[in-house]
Amino acid sequence: MRKENISDAVIRRLPRYYRQLSDLRARGITRISSLSLGREMGITASQIRQDFSCFGEFGQQGYGYHVRELCEEIGRILGVDRDHHLILVGVGHLGHALLQNFPFAKCGFSVDAAFDTAPAVVGCTVNGVAVRDMDDVDEWLRGNPVDVAVLTVPRGAAQDVADRLISLGVRGFWNFTNLELDSTHPEVKFENIHFSDSLLTLSYRIAND
Amino acid sequence: MRKENISDAVIRRLPRYYRQLSDLRARGITRISSLSLGREMGITASQIRQDFSCFGEFGQQGYGYHVRELCEEIGRILGVDRDHHLILVGVGHLGHALLQNFPFAKCGFSVDAAFDTAPAVVGCTVNGVAVRDMDDVDEWLRGNPVDVAVLTVPRGAAQDVADRLISLGVRGFWNFTNLELDSTHPEVKFENIHFSDSLLTLSYRIAND
Questions:
Q1: Three-class DSSP labels, chain A
Q2: Greatest alpha-carbon span in chain B
Q3: In degrees, to the nearest 5, what angle opens at C-alpha B76 toward C-alphas B71 and B80?
Q4: How far, CA to CA in Å, does B45 sit from each of A66, B65, B77, B122, B195?
Q5: In DSSP terms, which residues pair with A190 in a beta bridge?
Q6: Minimal Cβ distance to A206: which of B12, B147, B197
Q7: By the number of CB atoms within 10 A of the CB, which of A40, A133, B22, B88 ranks highest?
Q8: Dihedral (C-alpha) B53, B57, B59, B62: value to the nearest 10 degrees?
Q9: What are chain A's domains?
């Protein structure tokens, strides 16, 4: 029932729906209309119905959406039930913060290992994750393939590290390096967190809105 | 020359243009056509011309854009030349990482102070920024008003902290707490970094694209 060529905008709203529905579940709400869901999220009801129609039929005329069922279905669409595996490369301040605080498991990811080049952190364990020597990444990945690498290396090292990991079969990158990464492999996906884009958007808004 | 009601999508592209043009400057490129700029960014030339037309006339028929001038102009639009002031609230792993590594000054922000409740960090200095006791934030802000607060507190404390800071005059929030914050003040702007939305988008893409 899934349509082809679902737009980027729709895909980016899915995690927002998932987050909102998870919150509603936690608040004990069992059903919700597209109108109320839209109001909570600042989206029109027709936008919501149109988005969901890309993935099949959810909800029922006159009843609305069953919160738990819809939440689980969107979770399945997003792959939170798939047990993806990842490594984190670059255990500086940010890498450390993600290992300590980010709920990877809730997003459906197991953190199998972390890698760094600094003798001061190699051999340590951060929140149960062993920090290994980057020199060993090739051998390690051959025995432990992963879907995703979290890149928290310095910007200057980002493309080289990505190229190396792509050659070892990694196809997804969660990229915090503020560098737009390239690959000749069309199946490689880069998802970027650009902190400065976000702060500059806020800078614009406080001055202009 | 600036139009009213510039769309969210256009505003969100401005920091990307700024980043791309800064990169071009660093690479020594002095002018660029909308076609080439679009190719580098995965945007059509007509989209670029349409976006820029919201802010006046840049570029010249047959010459293209002067990279440095356009970069500086977009920087001005974004407010990187304004010397905004901010505080960071919550000096845990992520707050620490931002203070250590994020180039606030390049985005036009001075970090005036950080605040926390934990005796272990209050009184410390992180990358030149003094960490103060959250109990003193009211008095401190009265003497040192800021435009923005970076929220890196635990999710459970986020709304209370935001409410308190809003009552003290803070109007912009860079929100890392994964909680959608509310305010009855229409002039308050929240800019959210939702890490999990980003990772779930990647999760979808590696499974479906």
A1: CCCCCCCHHHHHHHHHHHHHHHHHHHCCCCEECHHHHHHHHCCCHHHHHHHHHCCCCCCECCCEEEHHHHHHHHHHHHCCCCCEEEEEECCCHHHHHHHHHCCCHHHCEEEEEEEECCCCCCCCEECCEEEEEHHHHHHHHHHCCCCEEEECCCHHHHHHHHHHHHHCCCCEEEECCCCCCCCCCCCCEEEECCHHHHHHHHHHHHHHC
A2: 62
A3: 95
A4: 44, 12, 20, 51, 31
A5: A173
A6: B147
A7: B88
A8: 90
A9: 8-77 (1.10.10.10), 84-197 (3.40.50.720)
Interface confidence, given as ipTM, is: 0.94
pLDDT tens figures, A192-204: 999 999 999 999 9
Identify the closest residue of chain B to A155 by CA–CA distance. B101
Which residues on chain B are in Cβ contact (under 8 Å) with A196? 15, 19, 102-103, 106-107
Confidence (pTM): 0.91
CA angle B76, B9, B79 (to 5 degrees): 15
3-state secondary structure at position B100: helix
